Fold:
Amino acid sequence: MDTFVRSEIKNNIAEITFGTPKSNSLPGHILEKLAKTILDEGAKKEVKAILLKSEGEKAFCAGASFDELLEIEELETSKKFFGGFAKVLNAMRTCGKIVVVRVQGKATGGGVGLASGADYCFATKDAALALTEINLGIGPFVIGPYVERKIGKSQFAAMAIDADFRSADWAEQHNVYHSVSENIAEMDAKISEFLQKLSTRSEDALALIKEVSWEGTEHFTELMPARIHMSASLILEESAKANINMIKEKLRAK
Structure:
């Protein structure tokens, strides 16, 4: 699979798809392109909503690219990388259009952030989620405000500490997912029907619903520099690099 972000408008819906070879994990240049594409599509008057999805039928998104994390040696480079996740989530929050996210498989780390940044989220029963950053020696600091907005501070802390997977049913009960299907075909049929309805809705009403639903999150922008610094500095530690290499070896052995 190539590494890409592509977008097309169908029936007033902008469909944005990203894909990378390693479980749709996200390198810095893809994060930058994803954020820009979301804002560009959101600025188009004919677009009523945005569908964000990843390539393939397995993992939705494995979060940060391990390969890129291992290459980071300078704080400013590290801050730019983690700032990419902040840019994507901020674009989802501020683009002015309803963002629908399609989660076909497991989501870890930043992938949980993408699901939590959705205004409406569809998933399959295989779409378990986990905040696995602690395994690397960092924490889910950048995505934290978005995840916490959905599941609450206590559940967010528990996920960040234990790094265990929660089921799709759990995610639905805790407001991350709004629809869980038995399989991808069933989910896509529901998404198609849902987007067809959205394409006929009042543009102004949808924009106001978006605005009202994100009230009280204006401070997310102010939080980000400190949150980015937390992850950016921790990932530079030798122990973090060792953790990433150890996890990569385990994945290769499977």
Summary: The CA atoms of residues 86 and 198 lie 27 Å apart. Strands lie at 4-10, 13-19, 49-54, 98-103, 107-108, 120-124, 129-130, 179-181. The radius of gyration is 17 Å.
